[in-house]
Prior knowledge:
By secondary structure, the chain is an alpha/beta fold. It has helices at about 15-20, 35-45, 65-70, 75, 85-95, 135-140, 160-175; strands at about 25-30, 50-55, 80-85, 100-105, 110, 125-130, 145.
Amino acid sequence: MRKLKNSELNRISPNEFKKAEKLPVVVVLDNIRSLNNIGSFFRTADAFRINEIILCGITATPPHREIHKTALGATESVDWQYFENIVDAINDLKKKGYSIIAIEQTDDKIFLNEFDPSDFNKIAFIFGNEVRGISDEALELLDLAIEIPQYGIKHSVNVSVSGGIVLWHTFYKLNPHL
């Protein structure tokens, strides 16, 4: 066994990425405070060809040196836009036909292992603040909440880790042949 060289990874260029078919998925970051988490979301969105990232509230926007540290150039490939208000972002997504799905611990949710993304045409996943979760304003506009089952004492994982778990699950379910 040996590690592959970068030249063996069949990477596409940012221009090829822009033209490539994307998952019908948008990631919405609701008041994410950590620039490292924001960068991690960009990198994960690039890995799974997510359509777009929407940054809301206090979530910082590229270009930013601290975002770039973890994004490693993915801010150049993944489309993004900024909304000051999460409600405006959600209303815009609903007009475009997206189902609004939060990754949050709520009293009315399904667990990730029960979630089938093929039941939806277009999905907007909302990920909330590292401490407070998604905002109450966003909670009122959801079509669905998904919880990642957890069995430790904390019952929480880092928001960008949650993003990786949910986006991998969605990518895999929509591309079972891979």
